[in-house]
Amino acid sequence: MNSLIKLSHEIRELEKEVALCSRCGMCQSVCPVFGQTLHEADVARGKLALLDGIIQEIFDNPKGAIKRLDRCLLCGSCMVSCPNSVPTMELFLKARIAITSVMGLPYFKKTLLKGFLAKPEAFDSLARYGAFFQKLFFRKPDQFHDASCAGLSSIMIPRALASRHVKNPADVPFHKTVLTKLEKVEKIEDKIDNRIKVAFFYGCLTDKIFPEIAESFLYILKRKNIEAVIPVGQGCCGIPALSSGDFETFLALMRLHLELFIDEEFDALVTPCATCTFTIKKLWPLFAENETALKAKVDRLAEKTMDASEFLVSYASIEPLEVNVPVQPGEVKPSPQKITYHDPCHLKKSLKVFKEPRMLLSNYADMEIVEMAGADECCGMGGSFTLSHQELSIEIGSKKAGNIVATGCETVATSCPACMLQIIDMLSRKNLKIKVKHPLEIYANHLKINADQ
Ligand code: SF4
Ligand code: SF4
What we know:
Elements: H1 2-12, H2 15-18, H3 32-37, H4 44-52, H5 54-60, H6 62-70, H7 77-81, H8 88-103, H9 107-117, H10 120-137, E1 149-151, H11 159-162, E2 165-167, H12 178-187, E3 197-200, H13 204-208, H14 211-223, E4 227-229, H15 239-243, H16 247-261, E5 268-271, H17 274-287, H18 292-304, E6 305-307, H19 308-315, E7 337-342, H20 345-351, H21 355-361, E8 367-369, H22 385-388, H23 390-406, E9 411-414, H24 417-428, E10 435-437, H25 439-452
Helix pairs in contact: 1-5, 1-8, 4-8, 5-6, 14-25, 16-18, 17-18, 17-20, 19-21, 21-25, 23-24
Residues 21-27, 44-45, 48, 78, 82, 84, 86, 88 line the site of one iron/sulfur cluster (SF4).
């Protein structure tokens, strides 16, 4: 009973913002989950109504109430289309924290978040063992897709993962090569005439699954004579913990990174991941409101935080890159390769960054950008949503895959490694050999070709 009183107190704090909802229903047309289920309980309006009567619901059917709140991608589509500016994402996150603080976390999630995610070294070991077992028990990586996807063995693997085509973790995570990178940056230091200095927050998925994205970014910085600092010991930005209602782990990770970054001198904190950028820039300050000792530092860091494409467009000249494709006499000049771009929700809807990544993709003579239908519609990933609501996630992701295929493009680019994982899965399960790349990879590759010509 005490815990229900505590919950009631915490939910009452949200009342003012929940009351902003006029029940107009405009969030229905943009909610990807409602788009599939057509259940009122799944749309923002239904969830806000649930928060209105949450104490009774928790009393009557605690598991059902949690499940309803959990059926959400935290994509922010409802928030940006709401005429009353109801801060839906903030409310859903705060409600998850309040409920978790009294009901606790399921055992598996608790072990994963508190035992591994909160401790970067333990998380690295887990990723290393995961990579080993994936290679041992899963089908060969090239079976589906040229991007190292694996159809998973159903004997050893939880059912939630058994049918997914998950890209193999990298043999060597990016952070293991960081010292080498710093040496390289030091070697060119004398020649650096650009005064801008970058602090690089690479993020877990870039580190463990897509180190080529971080490599590309460092290559671009080097070519642009921009100095970088990469603090050693980085971990997760904390979003998986926050979206599971585990505020303690989220706070621990925020503190860890403040200590790593705050004393370094730099002009911009840059990440290649839309979700990390959004978390550091928006969620850290929002959830540090009551942490008086941290707030000023968090705000200072958040103010300097930028998506990599936004940084490059603002501080490094993104010039048109001529890439000559040699044509023999009598041969027809090949037509440009076609590329399309998926807008990660956390980059376009939450941070209004959508022109900059396209600028990294549209400056080449050998490549043509083709817009897909619904480029800014969610891909269905939503962090752990893709595992806990697998069928829904695949339905939403399949629609995205269909829109990509309809463009006739050979490559799809996106600025979020989590979206990349989901899109690789969606294309791979249809056996489609469309490449999935980060805009930094495309830009770095063109810089390389251009330099070699
Ligand atoms: S659009 Fe906003 S005000 Fe309208 S029902 Fe949805 S959350 Fe409520
Ligand atoms: S955040 Fe996205 S999935 Fe969740 S209710 Fe809003 S629109 Fe629907």
